[in-house]
Amino acid sequence: MSTVLVTGGSRGIGAATVELFASRGDKVYFLYEKEHESAALVQAKTGATPVCCDVSDGNAVHAAAEKIGPIDLLVCNAGISITGLIQDLPAEQWDRLFDVNVKGIYHCVQAFLPGFLQMQSGCIITVSSMWGQVGASCEVAYSATKGAVIAMTKALAQELGPSGIRVNCVAPGVICTDMCADVRPEIMEELRQQTPIGRLGTAADVAQAILYLADAKFITGQVLGVNGGLVI
User: Regarding the domain with residue range 3-226, which homologous superfamily does it belong to in the CATH classification?
Assistant: First the structure.
């Protein structure tokens, strides 16, 4: 049995990941910021332990790490998205995206790394996006943060590998979660038609990829696209 922490675990990809790891008997914790009701539902369904924590707040993350203790797997999933033209994007929104999507990973890695180093083992999996690989119009800030996540993953893999710690990344494509709730149905259908596998992704699809990377002992520094072939 492994001890697993999933950030952003109250909904979407995070909740599916919590459910999958809990279903195989792992001890699972998850961080969430605001969705108290959703977190309670995930806890009731899975038996996982919720911890209310804003990953952009370093002090809060370190306090959560002290509460949780050593872990075997850190899944850095917490993220937010803002769409719109770059000329209309306020600086504070740009900063908020980076605070959550990028600095949140920095805080979590720093907080839990001492335990990994003491064990000389561990696994970190980050969640980027296909837009971090190829960019997206009207999602410049989001694409920039997700590109940074990929770069962080590769650098961490090189830095932490000698200590027995693997670091990998999943890059989801169009996944049917709350992030897509405001996308017009005709655009979603167009994206479905552009996807070679012929359908859009689910949170469970991404969770399965995370599970694979968690168990793949000779893989590190890699970005696994979970996009149905939309980006190859």
Answer: NAD(P)-binding Rossmann-like Domain (3.40.50.720)
